[in-house]
Amino acid sequence: MTGDHRVVDADAAWERLLGIRSVADAVSAGLVPGPDGRMRWRHGTPGADDLADRYLPLCLAGPRLTFAQLGQSLDGFIASRTGDADYVTGEEDRAHLHRMRALADAVVVGAGTAVADDPRLTVRACPGTDPVRVVLDPHGRVPLGHRLFTDGAAPTVWVVGAACGRGPEVAGRDGVDVLTLPDRAAFGPRNLVRELAARGLGRVLVEGGGVTVSRFLHEGALHRLYVTVAPVLLGDGVPGLAFPGPALMRDALRPPTRRVRLGEDTLFELDLGTPDPGEPVGHEHARAGQARGEAQ
Q1: H/E element, 123
Q2: Taking the complete model, does pTM exceed 0.70, yes or no?
Q3: What are phi and psi of 75, to 5 degrees?
Q4: C or N terminus of the chain, fewer CB within 10 Å?
């Protein structure tokens, strides 16, 4: 493909990015280093180069990666006070979220998000393979009539606590598997990452809600965090990131950050480091504070 002189547009770029997992793959696909060190298409449109700049780091991050995405209002809410989240951010962010799913082996949501939104968690806004859908539900709260358990669109892993006793209810359902964990401590993000990796699900997207993402962030289980901010004010509602922070501003977490315009929205990409998956990324990160609550 290195001798191909055809112009790579955004659609072709995305198709090629889906197959890239190494620098050798990137070169073979037609990417070359630019003067700033970033890789660009040898014959690419500006839109194609934007996609490479945004997603190539995820493509090259290896088989063990945990990353999260939240879309929120300017004042920090992911839904209104009634729980309405359709839609905080715009169509370009929706496409971005679906691309993130396509680059993941598994997409994780807490029970609160699964109950409130009845999400599908599939790849629909772009080409790509659906990830395995993982529902963190220690108390067995998610109704079994929800689409994650009934639509057959993608495999689902229902992660429940042993005490809830609900695992056998989905026995025999096609595409639904149950992972039973012994106690609340086993639902800690680092342990969950290990459990999923043992199932061959090493690239994990934590999609929601705010409590779940906050727990993964605080406990040092995230390599990257993506937050899309929409120019809208809600006044009150369901918060995004929420955990007791440090007493002093100088102790706040200030990771390297990139900003990208997504239509009217702004995407912030936070590089939280490259720890062993599920391990703390550093002393300052661990001090950021304990997120409130349990897996939603």
Answers
A1: none
A2: yes
A3: -95, 15
A4: N
